[in-house]
């Protein structure tokens, strides 16, 4: 009896202890909605409804007040939920003011749609919490999910729920009959592709900050609209879909095994596109910029993120990743897919841990030992990928493969891989004649046409077309902040080069899925099905067929940009002090000055050794020295060195005049003029006839 009494006491104590270590939140304390009414909570059902009213790029939150609650007795938060829309949400902790030492991503976890329970360890945070936040995913406009229960608990092993565990088997294409013609020639094939549309729904989050697991809707491409979007894109006139596939966080182990759910999802989309009679380009691996910045690493719950970097330090790991990825892709996509499926080795392979990006002004320096090593490694990656794809056999033994270069494919250092199949490789490049990001030119000109279009195609002619090798521009476009008629005129010239007789070439237009304030690459809204700037899109589609899209006279009149001459006007916003080669850029010389002119500089000497240089950036992004007309300058002496590649202007007077010839003005129109120097104050810059 005494023994049984002791057991009863033990059981009661255990039960009491367990009860004391679980705190269940009253979900009725969630507010009915947030202040901007983009997220609401139904207290009867626990259902959360998100409606951002079309502003899909923002994150909206619902706050649960804990009022500085002491959570020192607990080590996890457990949330039970259902997210049937295929879109998850994130749960975050909030501390009292002044105690927040973590990034937004480090304060939370993502609750994927395919799970119903997540464990969130909280031992790294302060002992008192101000509240919890339920946050919507970045790329979703509307969604619903139900919160079943939220508890604070004390457990023996406080670890995050592994959102990558699955019992699904690797995806294998079991078809046995080969259907690709081994004798088909890439030269005849490329013109059939028509204009392509870039659809990067499987590009991951490009970040190590947050693990979204198997959910893809956060990229801005709603899964529920895939079929409708493909139909809309097809009916517009596009014939090819370029699918960027960045596996990133989708590797499950140290053998680089891909999550079968990820492969199945890609396969489902590819099949859907093929059903709509598209050609499909499946491109592997995005650039690795995101893994090189410590600011993008989640220190509390690190995200497993695999990337490919063209660098000797990362070579062995990158090669293992590439081989594993393409072996699994080649196994999943084989005899069931004929020549309508094309593989593309990589997307813009780069070395972002080398100063190439900044130290060489974004260009490859052939005098740099690291650059020369990277060139060899980049060529080697392509060879490895081609060999890996061919080794999967079946249709892949003769599948067309597009090959991305490290650097420019028309440069002498690029080598097409050796291939067991004959005439199946297609070199590719990305070309943006009007620029990208911070270097966008708002006007188009004959100078830009020469540097960014004509000169490039002349190099492609020499390297590929004249050798019966086709070429594919797998990304080209112009951002919408450039006036539409400028874009139209640029793409008409570009497509004239693409379709010129004696060439085998085609293009994919780069698009973003949804519009946003500072990014104007969205011409088709994947959430609403709406097209914008249709005259521009149709101009490209017509041009690919050798036709000219008819623009109305009213449209041309309305959208013609009148450019005011800058001859004789001040180009500096304020005087610029040259202490030691700190340059000033002038970027408004497109169509504002004649093709041949004089540059008038007014300076004041401020040091013992004043010097000036006039620089430009060429079509390969190399920093170059402008040679003045007749190699002379008024008001100064020209000092030439480095076998004529470099020069200094030694000022002799306050006013210096430099002659700019037609040789240099196109480059200045394209990427601007740079004036550099030391020991002098630049007081004025003008263009004079």
Features:
alpha/beta; 8-stranded parallel barrel; 8-stranded antiparallel sheet; 11 helices
Explain what you see.
The chain is of the alpha/beta class and 689 residues long. Strands 11-12-13-14-15-16-17-18 form an eight-stranded parallel barrel. Strands 19, 20, 21, 22, 23, 24, 27 and 28 form an eight-stranded antiparallel sheet that branches. The protein is built from eleven helices and 28 strands. Mean pLDDT is 90; it is low at 1-19. β14, α6 (369-391) and β15 form a beta-alpha-beta unit. It starts with a helix and ends with a strand.
Number of helices: 11
Q: How would you sum up the major sheet?
A: 8 strands, parallel, barrel
Number of strands: 28
Beta-strand level of the residues, as a percent range?
A: 15-25%
Separation of the first and last Cα atoms: 113 Å
Described by the principal axes of the CA atoms, the overall outline is globular
Q: How large, in whole angstroms, is the Cα Rg?
A: 30 Å
Percent of residues in helices: 10-25%
Helix-and-strand structural type: alpha/beta
Biggest sheet, spatial arrangement of strands = 11-12-13-14-15-16-17-18
Mean pLDDT: 90
């Amino acid at each position: 009896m005494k023994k049984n009494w002791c057991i009863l006491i033990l059981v009661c104590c255990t039960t009491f202890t367990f009860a004391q270590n679980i705190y269940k939140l009253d979900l009725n304390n969630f507010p009915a909605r947030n202040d901007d009414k983009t997220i609401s909570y139904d207290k009867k059902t626990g259902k959360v409804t998100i409606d951002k009213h079309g502003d899909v790029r923002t994150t909206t939150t619902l706050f649960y007040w804990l009022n500085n609650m002491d959570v020192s007795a607990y080590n996890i938060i457990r949330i039970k939920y259902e997210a049937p829309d295929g879109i998850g949400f994130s749960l975050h902790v909030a501390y009292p003011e002044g105690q927040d030492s973590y990034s937004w991503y480090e304060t939370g976890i993502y609750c994927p749609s395919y799970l119903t329970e997540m464990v969130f360890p909280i031992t790294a945070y302060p002992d008192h919490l101000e509240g919890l936040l339920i946050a919507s995913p970045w790329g979703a406009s509307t969604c619903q999910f139900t919160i079943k229960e939220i508890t604070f608990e004390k457990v023996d092993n406080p670890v995050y729920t592994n959102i990558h565990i699955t019992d699904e088997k690797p995806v294998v294409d079991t078809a046995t009959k080969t259907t690709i013609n081994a004798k088909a020639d890439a030269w005849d094939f490329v013109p059939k592709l028509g204009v392509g549309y870039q659809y990067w729904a499987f590009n991951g989050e490009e970040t190590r900050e947050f693990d979204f697991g198997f959910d893809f809707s956060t990229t801005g491409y709603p899964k529920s609209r895939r079929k409708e979007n493909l139909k809309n894109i097809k009916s517009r006139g596009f014939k090819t879909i370029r699918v960027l596939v960045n596996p990133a966080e989708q590797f499950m182990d140290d053998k680089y095994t891909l999550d079968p759910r990820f492969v199945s999802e890609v396969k489902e989309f590819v099949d859907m596109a093929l059903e709509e009679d598209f050609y499909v380009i499946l491109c592997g691996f995005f650039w690795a910029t995101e893994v090189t910045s410590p600011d993008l690493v989640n220190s509390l719950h690190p995200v497993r993120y695999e990337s490919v970097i063209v660098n000797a330090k990362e070579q062995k790991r990158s090669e293992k990743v590439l081989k594993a990825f393409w072996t699994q892709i080649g196994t999943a996509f084989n005899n069931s897919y004929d020549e309508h499926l094309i593989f593309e080795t990589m997307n813009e392979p780069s070395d972002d841990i080398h100063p190439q990006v900044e130290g060489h002004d974004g260009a490859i320096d052939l005098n740099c030992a690291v650059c020369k090593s990277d060139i060899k490694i980049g060529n080697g990656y392509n060879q490895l990928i081609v060999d890996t794809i061919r080794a999967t056999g079946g249709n892949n033994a003769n599948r067309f493969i597009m090959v991305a270069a490290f650097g420019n494919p028309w440069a002498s250092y690029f080598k097409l891989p050796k291939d067991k199949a004959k005439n199946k490789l297609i070199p590719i490049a990305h070309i943006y004649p009007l620029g990208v990001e911070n270097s966008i030119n708002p006007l188009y000109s004959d100078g830009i046409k020469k540097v960014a279009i004509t000169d490039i195609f002349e190099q492609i002619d020499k390297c590929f077309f004249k050798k019966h090798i086709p070429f594919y521009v797998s990304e080209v476009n112009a951002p919408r902040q450039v006036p539409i008629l400028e874009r139209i005129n640029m793409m008409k010239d570009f497509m004239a080069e693409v379709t010129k007789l004696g060439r085998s070439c085609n293009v994919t237009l780069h698009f973003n899925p949804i519009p946003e304030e500072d990014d104007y690459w969205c011409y088709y809204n994947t959430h609403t099905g709406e097209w914008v700037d249709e005259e521009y899109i149709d101009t490209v589609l017509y041009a690919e067929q050798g036709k000219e899209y008819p623009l109305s006279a009213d449209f041309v009149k309305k959208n013609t940009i009148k450019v005011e001459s800058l001859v004789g006007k001040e180009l500096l916003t304020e005087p610029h002090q040259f202490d030691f080669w700190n340059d000033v850029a002038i970027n408004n010389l497109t169509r504002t000055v004649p093709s041949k002119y004089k540059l008038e500089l007014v300076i004041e000497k401020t040091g013992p050794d004043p010097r000036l240089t006039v620089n430009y950036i060429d079509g390969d992004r190399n920093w170059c020295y402008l040679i003045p007309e007749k190699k002379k300058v008024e008001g100064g002496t020209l000092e030439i060195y480095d076998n004529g590649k470099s020069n200094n202007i030694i000022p002799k007077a306050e006013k210096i005049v430099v002659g700019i010839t037609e040789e240099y003005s196109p480059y200045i129109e394209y990427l601007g003029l740079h004036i550099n120097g030391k020991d002098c104050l630049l007081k004025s810059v003008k263009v004079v006839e």
